[in-house]
Every structure is written in C-alpha cells, then in structure tokens.
Amino acid sequence: MSKLNKESSVALYQQLIDEIKDQIASGKLTTGDRLMTEFELSQEYNVSRITVRKAIEVLVEENILIKKQGIGTFVAEKKLTRNVGVFMGFTSNCIQDGKTPSTKLLAAELVKATTVDVKNLDLKPGEKVIRINRLRISDGDPVVIEETRFSQKYAFLFGENLEGSLYEILAHNGIVMSGGKRTINICNTTKEEAELLEVEENEVMLYMKDICVDANGTPIHSCKSIINPRRYEIIINTMPNKG
C-alpha cells in the first residue's frame, strides 16, 4: 500500500478514500473483503483515527463499504442501479452499468386473464393472456423475478428467445414503449422466491408493478418484479417545485 502525502493540498481523509477505491478497482480488495480496523489503518497510513473514521464514513455513505456491527467494515457488493423514472429494460440497465445480464426462463404460457389483467391490458372478460415468468441475473447473481403479461396479440413471443431482451424483441416487431405507470412497494419472499433469489424465506424485497403503453396510450404489457435490494439500487430523480 502507498503512503499518504501530508504535503498535498488534498485532505488526508480524501487521499485515504482514493487509496481504498484504488484497492477495490485493482482487485486487491474485492466484494466481501474485510478492511483493517481503524487502528490498523491509522498505523498503516500514519494518520489519526479521526481521519480514518471520516474516510470510512464517506465510503459507507457512497455504498462502497458496509459496516457490520461488532464484526468490522467490509467491501460492499456493487449494486445494479436503476432510475425508476425511466422505462429501461433489465438487459440495457445491466449493460449501462457495465454488468453482464442473463436470464433464466421459468415459464411461458397462455393463461386465463384475471380481473386485474382485464383492467391493466384493456381486455374483454374471458380472454387469455401470455404469462412470461423469468429470473433476471446480473454478473451471475440473481437479482429480479419478473412476471410479465401480454394480450394474445403478442403470441409471436412464443417463437422468440425469451431469455434475451423482451424490449428488443418488441422493437424488432415495431412495438416501442412510450411510457406508463410504475408502483413501488415492499413484499416478503415465499420459499420458492427465496430459493430463486438466494435469500432467506420471508426476507423483505422491493416489489415493483409496471404498466407499459405505446405512443397512443394502448397497454403493451404489465409486469410484476420482485427485486433483491441488496443487489439493486433504485434512484428517483426529482425536480424543484416551482409552484
């Protein structure tokens, strides 16, 4: 490890922040690694424990490090980041964040529309819907369970590779998302969901419901997503109130 430059105009705590970030970027520190204690870091870099503590606080605030009470400070798992104000597919989201997306198809079937389907997809009672259930994976880690529903006019999807991007398939068929409605809540995992997401049963997850429409406001699909918040960070951009 390099020593900090006390003659530099850059504050010592910021130099330590940069040093720890460099260690992570170079792979010398990886996800789950435990950092030295405050005392050990202060000895290693010849700085006060106050300086070390400030650097760690900033890195924890930035979600780069995570503190575990009574155990120590660890390199946090880098989360997939999503701006929920933008309708972006999981595949594009991963690529934008420099991660490798993959998908496990759990089900693709024609089922009877529920009352909620009739409302969300503007259907007639008694119609059927296409139900596509998938596990979305980022850099090998399961992140999201998605259940997407389409009306029968999208039956061509059964002939497509559903382990890729649905949005790309739709775009190739001239169908483009224009907007919609998004609702975010929380839920607890069932035993099956917990196994898929590799978490504990009854663990709290993010629960997101989408209704996507085209430029004419016609519903294209609805989607329910169960999201592991330990691997997925949601960002909401806000605008100042000028009223």
UniProtKB/TrEMBL annotation:
<keyword id="KW-0804">Transcription</keyword>
<keyword id="KW-0805">Transcription regulation</keyword>
<feature type="domain" description="HTH gntR-type">
    <location>
        <begin position="10"/>
        <end position="78"/>
    </location>
</feature>
<dbReference type="Pfam" id="PF07702">
    <property type="entry name" value="UTRA"/>
</dbReference>
<dbReference type="InterPro" id="IPR028978">
    <property type="entry name" value="Chorismate_lyase_/UTRA_dom_sf"/>
</dbReference>
<dbReference type="InterPro" id="IPR036390">
    <property type="entry name" value="WH_DNA-bd_sf"/>
</dbReference>
<dbReference type="InterPro" id="IPR050679">
    <property type="entry name" value="Bact_HTH_transcr_reg"/>
</dbReference>
<dbReference type="Pfam" id="PF00392">
    <property type="entry name" value="GntR"/>
</dbReference>
<dbReference type="InterPro" id="IPR011663">
    <property type="entry name" value="UTRA"/>
</dbReference>
<dbReference type="InterPro" id="IPR000524">
    <property type="entry name" value="Tscrpt_reg_HTH_GntR"/>
</dbReference>
<dbReference type="InterPro" id="IPR036388">
    <property type="entry name" value="WH-like_DNA-bd_sf"/>
</dbReference>
<protein>
    <submittedName>
        <fullName>GntR family transcriptional regulator</fullName>
    </submittedName>
</protein>
<keyword id="KW-0238">DNA-binding</keyword>
